[in-house]
């Protein structure tokens, strides 16, 4: 029975969903949303803050400042509240309402940027504001998840070894990319493991992580409008890209089975299924990482009007349920099935 006195002391590290019946392909989904910050970003936030404390970069009167599309902001809000630091999050108009309200409920200040810069988009505008704040107040400390090695080290120390413990015969690992902290930490760790593991990065169409020109992306979490400084492609075997419409179909299909996951989980599962459909999966052990849960996306991915307005009717059209799906018939259960 875990008993804790600080919120970041608890993180469910050993929960997986077996998606074989739903996908018609083997896939174990590592659920990272069961902690008080509600996402995988708890680990990066904890590592970045505690490492800065050890180095003396953060002192009692520091103001933590960070640019985040939401989940890191919530995790930092929680840790800052617990440790007694002030925290200012700079986000943009794609940040979910629930996420912003959570940060404010935890005592943080939130700046929402709604206009991007010509060359750097909304992210460029966020980073410019962070730089201005740090220049104006010497108490401000920018943790800089995009360049901070403690971001990927969190996954090198925690996420990858946890997966290896659970799946000693792991063959393929599917990882969604934003800052690429999760990808680089896991990829570096598995590079030296006792067996080769194929590292497959999953990105959103419209993201510039792997060098494509940036395009419209409405779902926060995955993807970046610039190339992430942490990325070292020498550790990545393959990158697959997923259309946001497929992300939404997959999220809604999972929800119809009772699993309400966040947007990047839909992206990763959709990309993984596509990859598995193209390969011989007999005897294969594949794992994918689900960064968060679905409550933060109720007014977007799970809101039919929002989906229809941005992606059209097709995304909500019913498709035939997978053969041998094994579930009892349920009115409307086949709505929006991606698999
Ligand atoms: C929901 C969600 N998915 C995926 C990611 C990407 O993780 P990383 O920044 O480690 O690449 C994030 C990071 O913000 C996230 O919040």
Number of strands: 10
Which quaternary structure do these chains form? Answer: single chain
- CATH fold node name of the largest domain: Rossmann fold
Give helix % range: 25-40%
What does this 3D model show about the protein?
By secondary structure, this protein is an alpha/beta fold. It folds into two domains: 7-35 and 149-316, 3-Layer(aba) Sandwich (Rossmann fold), CATH 3.40.50; 41-142, Rossmann fold, CATH 3.40.50.1100. It has ten helices and ten strands. It has helices at residues 20-23, 41-55, 71-83, 97-105, 121-136, 149-166, 181-191, 244-256, 263-277, 304-311; strands at 16-18, 28-31, 63-67, 86-92, 109-113, 140-142, 172-176, 198-204, 238-242, 286-290. Helix 3 links the parallel strand 3 and strand 4. Helix 2 (41-55) crosses helix 3 (71-83), helix 2 crosses helix 6 (149-166) and helix 3 (71-83) runs parallel beside helix 4. It binds pyridoxal-5'-phosphate. Pyridoxal-5'-phosphate (PLP) binds at residues 39, 41, 69, 71-72, 176-183, 221-222, 262, 264, 291-292.
Q: How would you describe this structure in keywords?
A:
339 residues, alpha/beta, Rossmann fold, four-stranded parallel sheet, 10 helices, binds pyridoxal-5'-phosphate
């Amino acid at each position: 029975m875990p008993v804790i006195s600080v919120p970041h002391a608890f993180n469910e590290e050993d929960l997986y969903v077996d998606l074989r019946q739903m996908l018609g392909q083997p896939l174990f989904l590592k659920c990272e949303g069961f902690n008080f910050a509600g996402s995988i970003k708890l680990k990066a936030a904890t590592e970045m803050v505690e490492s800065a404390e050890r180095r003396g970069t953060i002192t009692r009167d520091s103001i933590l400042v960070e640019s985040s599309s939401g989940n890191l902001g919530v995790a930092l809000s929680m840790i800052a509240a617990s440790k007694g630091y002030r925290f200012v999050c700079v986000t943009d108009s794609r940040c979910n309402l629930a996420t912003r309200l959570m940060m404010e409920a935890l005592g943080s200040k939130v700046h929402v940027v709604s206009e991007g810069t010509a060359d750097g988009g909304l992210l460029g505008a966020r980073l410019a504001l962070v730089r201005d704040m740090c220049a104006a107040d010497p108490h401000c400390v920018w943790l800089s998840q995009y360049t901070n090695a403690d971001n990927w080290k969190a996954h090198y120390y925690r996420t990858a070894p946890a997966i290896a413990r659970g799946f000693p015969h792991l063959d393929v690992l599917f990882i969604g990319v934003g800052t690429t902290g999760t990808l680089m930490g896991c990829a570096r760790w598995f590079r030296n493991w006792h067996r080769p593991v194929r590292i497959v990065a999953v990105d959103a169409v419209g993201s510039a992580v792997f060098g494509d020109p940036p395009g419209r992306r409405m779902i926060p979490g995955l993807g970046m409008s610039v190339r992430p400084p942490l990325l070292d492609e020498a550790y990545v075997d393959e990158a697959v890209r997923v259309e946001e419409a497929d992300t939404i179909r997959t999220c809604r299909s999972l929800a119809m089975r009772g699993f309400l996951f966040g947007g990047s989980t839909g992206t990763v599962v959709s990309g993984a299924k596509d990859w598995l459909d193209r390969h011989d999966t007999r005897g294969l052990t594949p794992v994918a990482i689900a960064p968060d849960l679905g409550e933060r996306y109720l007014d977007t991915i799970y809101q039919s009007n929002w989906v229809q307005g941005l992606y059209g009717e097709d995304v909500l059209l019913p498709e035939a349920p997978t053969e041998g799906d094994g579930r009892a018939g349920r009115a409307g259960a086949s709505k929006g099935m991606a698999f």
